[in-house]
């Protein structure tokens, strides 16, 4: 049988053990939270200004882990990095991006209208893309899309049928509209393939 002094001692020991467990659990949560793997950021430079651009969302190649998923309204994170007319911009992707197929879509304002130029890069073939902005072809935006290993079948077709769309595992958007520049002709033009 326990004496009143023994009960008091056990109560104190129990409270100390519970407090220690709470402290350990809290410290572990803080330590783990600070060591999450960061999302890969690309580098965009024009002139003296360098921007680190994070994706609107980033998923594993098999789309089983995602961070920063696009909202239901379709809003994407856009980084503003004006590129002056007559200058050259350099876009560099990290190994996590270049290790997958990825595309670059650049939009230009021309006297005839808006022109989109697309480059498609196979894995590990290209890390840096040069984009020029000239008076007749003003760079107003760039978007990098990284392709996953997951293919969605064509509706109405068996899951193992050939064809279908590959899902994007990440999207990066940059608004490069020069300061004070006004797009005068917004007529969409037929797109081009980049070299």
In short:
The protein is an alpha+beta fold. It has helices at residues 4-33, 95-98, and strands at residues 42-46, 49-53, 57-59, 66-67, 78-80, 88-92, 102-110, 113-121, 128-132, 138-152, 165-175, 192-193. It folds into two domains: 1-36; 42-193.
Compile the SSE list and pairings.
Blueprint: H1 4-33, E1 42-46, E2 49-53, E3 57-59, E4 66-67, E5 78-80, E6 88-92, H2 95-98, E7 102-110, E8 113-121, E9 128-132, E10 138-152, E11 165-175, E12 192-193
Parallel strand pairs: 5-11, 8-12
Antiparallel strand pairs: 1-2, 1-6, 3-4, 3-11, 6-9, 7-8, 7-10, 10-11
Model description:
The structure is a single chain. The chain folds into 2 domains: 1-36; 42-193. It contains 2 helices and 12 strands; from the N terminus they run H-E-E-E-E-E-E-H-E-E-E-E-E-E. It has helices at 4-33, 95-98, and strands at residues 42-46, 49-53, 57-59, 66-67, 78-80, 88-92, 102-110, 113-121, 128-132, 138-152, 165-175, 192-193. The strands form 2 sheets. Strands 3, 4, 5, 7, 8, 10, 11 and 12 form an 8-stranded mixed beta sheet that branches. Strands 2-1-6-9 form a 4-stranded antiparallel beta sheet, with no helix packed on it.
Key structural traits:
four-stranded antiparallel beta sheet; 2 domains; 2 helices; globular; alpha+beta; 195 residues
């Amino acid at each position: 049988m326990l004496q009143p002094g023994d009960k008091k001692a056990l109560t104190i020991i129990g409270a100390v053990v519970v407090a220690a467990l709470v402290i350990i659990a809290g410290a572990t949560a803080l330590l783990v939270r600070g060591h999450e793997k960061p999302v890969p950021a690309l580098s965009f430079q024009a002139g003296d200004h360098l921007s680190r651009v994070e994706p609107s969302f980033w998923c594993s190649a098999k789309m089983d882990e995602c961070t920063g998923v696009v909202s239901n309204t379709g809003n994407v994170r856009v980084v503003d990095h004006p590129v002056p007319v007559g200058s050259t911009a350099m876009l560099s992707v990290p190994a996590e991006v270049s290790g997958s197929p990825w595309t670059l879509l650049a939009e230009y304002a021309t006297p005839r209208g808006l022109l989109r130029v697309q480059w498609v890069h196979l894995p590990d073939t290209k890390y840096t893309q040069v984009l020029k902005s000239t008076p007749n072809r003003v760079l107003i935006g760039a978007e990098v899309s990284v392709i996953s290993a997951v293919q969605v079948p064509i509706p109405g077709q068996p899951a193992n049928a050939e064809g279908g769309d590959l899902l994007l595992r990440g999207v990066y958007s940059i608004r490069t509209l020069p300061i004070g520049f006004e797009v005068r002709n917004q007529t969409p033009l037929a797109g081009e393939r980049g070299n």
